[in-house]
Amino acid sequence: MKFWYHYNKPASRSQGCNILTVHFKGACHLVKNIVCNVPTATRARKSQPLCVIAGDALEILVENETAFIS
Question: Domain residues for 48?
Fold first, then answer.
């Protein structure tokens, strides 16, 4: 399954801590940590966020504010 993630500045400001957004299966998930065990690469976009980290995973599990990507 294709996925991409990025730093979420508005959510980070409102929550007072670093927040990342992980996108997969047409949904976005706000997390504080990412454990990624697959190859990734940066990808430029024409709209915000302009730069994201993308990859292809077999499984993504979001649990306890952490995204586990394998």
Answer: 2-69
